[in-house]
Amino acid sequence: MKLCVASTNPAKIGAVTSALEKLTVQAEVNQQEAQSGVSAQPFSIEETKAGAINRAHHVLAGFDAAIGLEGGVFELDGTLYLCNWGALVTSTGAVYVAGGAQVPLPAEIATLLRAGEELGPVMDRYAQETGIRHHKGAIGILTAGKLNRVELFSQIVVLLFGQWQANSD
Ligand SMILES: O=P(O)(O)OP(=O)(O)OP(=O)(O)OC[C@H]1O[C@@H](n2cnc3c(O)ncnc32)[C@H](O)[C@@H]1O
Ligand SMILES: [Mg+2]
């Protein structure tokens, strides 16, 4: 099966390859940078989900399926939360979506995002590290490493493939 992942972010590529191993799915995995078609910092569940779907559709041509993975934030009861969404689209027109881990963001981070900053650089400054979004992710910082961005997106990819399988039998 030829599969395309709509990102060159190593955390997202690693999530797909580790999920495929767990699912024992043989696939030729290609990676392509893709426009999410939403704001650089998605600010709702709807926008984050749409970004994942748009990415997958943008790279699907020539493949059996494509996966889009998108991180974002959303407001709930006055608190800003991290959210993560994935989409798997197939050459036959199927679209599967799944949401992943959500956690509250510290108030100081929320203030900066509401002022228009992106979570990536904000997390790097907050944790005094670089490139957090390419490996442990905000989830890794906020859970003291108990879950990282690869594991988080890997679970989403398993949910996507599981739905594909459940609808293909
Ligand atoms: O290369 P791509 O695939 O675009 O991946 P990304 O790391 O830019 O991440 P997303 O586009 O999926 O997320 C949208 C923005 O939200 C930020 N973001 C989302 N989840 C994050 C996380 O876990 N850690 C750090 N930044 C995150 C990041 O700065 C992005 O600019
Ligand atoms: Mg991005």
TrEMBL record:
Hydrolase keyword on record: yes
Keyword list, A-Z: Hydrolase, Magnesium, Manganese, Metal-binding, Nucleotide metabolism, Nucleotide-binding
Entry-linked Gene3D superfamilies: 3.90.950.10
An individual GO BP term: nucleotide metabolic process
Annotated ranges, domain Non-canonical purine NTP phosphatase/PRRC1: 6-161
Catalytic EC class: hydrolase
Cofactor(s) the protein requires to work: Mg(2+); Mn(2+)
Annotated TM spans: none
Database matches in InterPro entries: ITPase-like_fam (IPR029001), NTPase/PRRC1 (IPR026533), YjjX_NTPase (IPR050299)
EC number, as in UniProt: 3.6.1.73
The protein, known as: inosine/xanthosine triphosphatase
Molecular function terms, GO-annotated: ITPase activity; metal ion binding; nucleotide binding
Pfam family, one: NTPase_I-T
